[in-house]
Amino acid sequence: MRILLALLLQALSMVCIAQVKTGIDILKENDFQPLKGKRVGLITNPTGVDRNMKSTIDILFEADSVELVSLFAPEHGVRGDALGGENILQTTDARTGVKVYSLYGKTYKPTAAMLQDIDILIYDIQDIGCRSYTFISTMGSAMEACAECGVKFMVLDRPNPLGGEKVEGPLVEKNFQSFVGKYPIPYIYGLTVGELAIMLNEQGMLRNGIKADLEVVKMQGWKRNMTWEDTGLPWVLTSPHIPQPITAIYYPVSGILGELNTISIGVGYTLPFQIFCASWIDAIELCDKMNSYELPGWEFRPIYAKPYYGLGQGKSMQGVQPYITDYKKANLTLVQFYIVEAIEQLYPLNNPMRNAKESRLKMFDKVCGSSKIRTTFMNSNCKVSSIEKMWNESAVQFSERRKQYFLY
To answer: How would you classify the pairing of strands 214-217 and 152-156?
Structure first.
């Protein structure tokens, strides 16, 4: 009887898991109607797959009604064979023989020459819902290029792994726009890539307010409160240090602080973006301090690590591992600032901001979207209370403004 009950509960849980269909699934179901008679270009990477993990490249290449003439490679390449930050070269895709143009190296935006042989450029990449991840900058740049050259732009929509409800962080100021913060949106923006593309288009965020001829192929079955596990979709690592859906959630928890390169956030260990460690930290002491803040939705435990590569390679380190106890209540991005506040109080000589190189501070500011966050924070002896309003104020306003672009 117990075995039967267990099997029934397992079957019910499987039924309850939503069967989300992404843009490529819907496009395929509709027999690629929008692409018939058109020459097609595709911006993608290994995350561009259908429910059966078949590459969008191969799906379009094999479709009788589709003429796939070129591929466009973002960071890491169309097949994922390039490291983070590594320049992508123009080449030919070994599997299909289709030419591959680089959008990460000397060129970040398709040129007129790259677009002259296509009628429609498709974007199919799994995003992680965080502004500093470069793929959305690639998308926006491609939209601008298509608008300038009269080429239609299509987004095959995919879930936001952070869900569609969280919005955190300040907008990017004009003087701090870069490829890790190209548009005035919060650090966590609470939109799918399709919704974001519509917003960029309609809010005049593309260069000179230009508008692309945009079409978004919507998903079916996705809801804003979904975690990745709720979608029933396979996860394909979006970059080498985002191997699992949980890593996407922790990327905005530690990634800004990680830009300083003065404290390990787990890149080089088995928990990328999921720990805060250094050789001079006492794990229990820092853990007690972090738990004393009673941050909603968070608990911290002591951890001991020895990174295999990167910052602190081969060194014995101590620190904390944050655990989300209530995702809805948890503010993701401010945790790293509380870490600095705790370090300032416990180990002031090792403050990761005060010990960072100038070049790393500039990168920190670019990722934050402003230098005001850092300077205000440091001038207050690193009190989170000094920046909390500044951090959240524009996010609240943006959260309301984005709703007119919801597709789900």
So the answer is: parallel
123-182 pLDDT per residue, tens: 999 999 999 999 999 999 999 999 999 999 999 999 999 999 999 999 999 999 999 999
The pair phi, psi for residue 313, each rounded to 5°, is -50, 125
Q: How many CA atoms lie within 13 A of 28 on its CB side?
A: 19
What pTM value is reported for the model? 0.93
Q: In what order do the strands lie in the sheet with 298-305?
A: 276-278, 317-324, 298-305
216 Cβ neighbours under 8 A, 6+ residues apart? 23, 154, 155, 157, 194, 195, 197, 198, 407
As a whole number of angstroms, the distance between CA 140 and CA 109 comes to 9
Sign, CA dihedral 399-404-406-408, equals positive
**Torsions phi, psi of 50, nearest 5?**
-90, -170
SS (HEC) of the chain: CHHHHHHHHHHHHHHHCCCCECHHHHHHHCCCHHHCCCEEEEEECCCCECCCCCEHHHHHHHCCCCEEEEEEECCCCCCCCCCCCCCCCCEECCCCCCEEEECCCCCCCCCHHHHCCCCEEEEECCCCCECCCCHHHHHHHHHHHHHHHCCEEEEECCCCCCCCCCCECCCCCHHHCECCECCCCCCECCCCHHHHHHHHHHCCCCHHHCCCCEEEECCECCCCCCCHHHHCCCCCCCCCCCCCHHHHHHHHHHHHHHCCCCCECCECECCCCCCEEECCCCHHHHHHHHHHCCCCCEEEEEEEECCCCCCCCCCCEEEEEEEECCCCCCCCCCHHHHHHHHHHHHCHHHCCCCCCCHHHHHHHHHHHCCCHHHHHHHHCCCCHHHCHHHHHHHHHHHHHHHHHHCCC
**How far is the CA of 367 from the CAs of 254, 261, 326, 394, in angstroms?**
12, 14, 26, 16
* C-alpha pair distances (Å), 194 with each of 2, 61, 215, 319, 401: 46, 23, 9, 38, 16
Q: pLDDT (tens digit, 9 = 90+) per residue, 172-199?
A: 999 999 999 999 999 999 999 999 999 9
d(CA 132, CA 180): 4
Interatomic CA distance for residues 297 and 315, integer angstroms: 31
